[in-house]
Amino acid sequence: MLALWPRVAAAVDVVSPLDFSSRKACLASLDYAERHLGNPADPEHDERAFLQVLERVCASPMLNADDKLRAGLLLEQAQKNRVGAAAASFDFVTLDGEAHSLNDYHSQFTLIYFNDPDCDACQRVKARLDTCSVIEHMVHNGGLTVIAVYTLDDEKAWRSATYPAYMVNGWNKSQSIDNDELYVLPSMPLFYLLDVDKKVVLKNEPSLNVVLETLQQAR
């Protein structure tokens, strides 16, 4: 696994000050974690720290079973494709009608770009990707595969969208990502960065800057 875990220390720093000493404190910590650590749009977003808080809350003797229902659901979702674990494979088709799966690709890194062509934030990120020399260089050198994935059911919207030539343009036509809850995507766009073994390096990452920083550390 790539030694790229600057967020591990950050996760400890975020979680340590939180209070789990009483029922009220546990529920307040859960609320904070859900609003900030588990929210990709929040500057404090940190998947690893979010997972730690959920585990603490679910294990707390201060809470009863009803108190833990919400945390249990969030924990189940957060454990999907967690950092360091193998990412769930999924099927998709490309514009030529060919069927593919995530596991068909074997680059040193795979970058999944979950997006919606009608999303304004997605358009802004795609505009940056259009001129991103770092990513394009890694793709051309064989060290990176970038897969743009559309998960909704509007084939016309998918076909009308354009992406940089270095990207694989995929549509999860079967809707397995949503229907089987293979990935929990609370917002768009989101990146997943995977290593050569398809283990998750970055999860639900909204920031292209973080993706670039991580890739540059790996070069």
Automatic annotation (TrEMBL):
<protein>
    <recommendedName>
        <fullName>Thioredoxin domain-containing protein</fullName>
    </recommendedName>
</protein>
<dbReference type="InterPro" id="IPR036249">
    <property type="entry name" value="Thioredoxin-like_sf"/>
</dbReference>
<feature type="domain" description="Thioredoxin">
    <location>
        <begin position="81"/>
        <end position="219"/>
    </location>
</feature>
<dbReference type="InterPro" id="IPR013766">
    <property type="entry name" value="Thioredoxin_domain"/>
</dbReference>
